[in-house]
Write a structure and sequence with these properties.
The chain is α+β, with helices and mostly antiparallel strands. It has 4 domains: about 60 residues, no CATH class; about 120 residues, no CATH class; about 55 residues; about 150 residues, Phosphatidylinositol 3-kinase Catalytic Subunit, Chain A, Domain 5. It has a 5-stranded antiparallel β-sheet with strand order 7-6-5-4-8. The chain has a 4-stranded antiparallel β-sheet with strand order 9-10-12-11, covered by helices on one side. Helix 12 packs parallel to helix 16 and helix 15 crosses helix 16.
């Protein structure tokens, strides 16, 4: 029996068990029970903070007896001996005890570490879990069962996965050593070979990264280093969308990481930072406490110097109907003691990438009514209007001098076709006109 058949049987078995088990509640029911937003519940599920939560399509099934996770804002130091060591390359910056609480030895070791620790003396287990959740393989990844098997695990556990993979991530040199004497260069190859190294396929050896849903492998294309992404499923057009958003962003004057079609089901997304000297920090790490419902104001409150960059991002996301912008795919680039707003990336979940023909038709006919949400509440159109009011218009933020033929050419180059081509073209034209009217 090949792996695909086994994976399908396992999927059917899990679905059957879930279907027969009535001891689950929805994210909305959990939100009401715990007096928090249902979006917050979904974030907790995605970060692995609700044991037993199961992904079901776009929603989650949560055990009825699940306990609300602690909010992680109370800072505590540890009275337990260290069992792991948090390091920057080979320099110990903190210790992790048996409860997964962290005590920092050098919370301001460098600019990147300082952004993570924010001067705190330690992290609670909940805070450490949030840190690791951004670095290890996602529970929503398509091949998660295979990765868990390689890790020797029967269920998703962010701490155990991090213990095995050391929380290594290509965006920086932070990791969690299992002994004080472990060296990064000694463990990185073993970790990737034993957990993420795939069988040789038609394209040769491939390596899955420890994060993301559909990332296939690291690689080089056109002398640029980045990641090759496989199509999420045969029914989606995320590969086409990623390429189209990059091409459109170039026309609109919005900085965006290059994305190229390299095959029928593959897109290459280039990294725009020097691994030897620069590091990427997600906006999620810039927040200590609970955020307000207004995500635009949240972002500019922690980095007001990037107000125009954030505004451009929101305009592009509105025009491309972005459906997956969150604090872990908005970032700043650290270059020594200086920082800058990092070019937009991970743009595939846009432009009706998974929508039916009926849905696309309705949305394209009414962009105001079908604008996607951003943050806890509010649609992209709400934020576009807010930005226009703050700026006294939108003139100068992006280039709106683009024709219907140019947009059609972009969609053709990205290989859009059928109703998704028609819907994307109509949506982009109408939303650009809406932005013009507010300029």
């Amino acid at each position: 029996m090949n792996w695909h058949c086994s994976e399908y049987m396992l999927y059917c078995f899990r679905e059957e068990v879930i279907g027969l088990n009535n001891e689950y509640i929805t994210a909305q029911q959990a939100a009401e029970k715990w007096n928090i937003s249902d979006r917050r519940v979904r974030v907790l599920c995605r970060e692995g903070k609700i044991p037993g939560a199961v992904k079901d399509g776009k929603t989650y099934k949560i055990p009825v007896d699940a306990v609300k996770p602690a909010d992680g804002r109370e800072k505590k130091t540890s009275a337990f001996p260290a069992v792991r060591w948090l390091k920057w390359e080979d320099e110990v910056i903190g210790t992790v005890d048996s409860t997964n609480a962290v005590v920092f030895i050098k919370p301001e070791y460098n600019e990147v570490v300082s952004l993570y620790t924010r001067g705190a003396k330690g992290w609670t287990p909940e805070q450490f879990s949030a840190f690791l959740s951004e670095r290890v393989v996602s529970r929503e990844r398509r091949d998660i069962e295979k990765i868990l098997f390689r890790c020797g695990l029967s269920h998703y556990d962010v701490f155990r996965i991090a213990e095995i993979t050391r929380g290594i991530h290509p965006k920086d040199l932070l990791w969690a050593a299992n002994s004080e004497n472990e060296k990064l260069n000694d463990v990185i190859t073993d970790v990737f070979d034993s957990v993420f190294h795939q069988k040789i396929d038609l394209k040769g050896d491939s390596i899955d990264t420890p994060e993301g849903y559909n990332i296939k492998r690291y690689g080089v294309y056109n002398r640029q280093y980045g990641i090759y992404k496989q199509r999420i499923s045969p029914l989606t057009t995320d590969v086409e969308s990623e390429a189209a958003v990059y091409l459109l962003a170039q026309k609109l004057g919005v900085p965006c990481c290059p994305a190229y079609r390299t095959g029928k089901d593959t897109v290459f997304s280039a990294f725009l930072y020097d691994f030897s000297e620069e590091y990427i920090v997600h906006f999620r790490r810039l927040f200590d406490d609970a955020r307000s419902d207004n995500e635009y104001q949240n972002l500019i409150s922690v980095r007001p110097q990037y107000k125009d960059d954030i505004a451009r991002m929101i305009l592009l996301d509105f025009i491309t109907r972005q459906d997956d912008r969150h604090l872990s795919n908005i970032a700043i680039k650290m270059s020594g003691k200086t920082e800058s707003f990092y070019s937009l990336y991970d743009n595939g979940r846009s432009l009706f990438y998974e929508d039916t023909e009926e849905m696309v038709s309705r949305a394209a006919a009414d962009p105001a009514g079908y604008a996607t949400t951003f943050g806890y509440s509010g649609t992209y159109l709400d934020y576009v209007r807010e930005i226009a009011k703050e700026h006294g218009g939108l003139k100068g933020l992006i280039n709106l001098e683009i024709t219907k033929n140019e947009i059609a050419s972009i969609l053709n180059e990205a290989a859009f076709e059928g109703y998704r081509f028609d819907g994307a073209l109509e949506w982009i034209l109408k939303t650009i006109e809406m932005v013009r009217e507010l300029s």
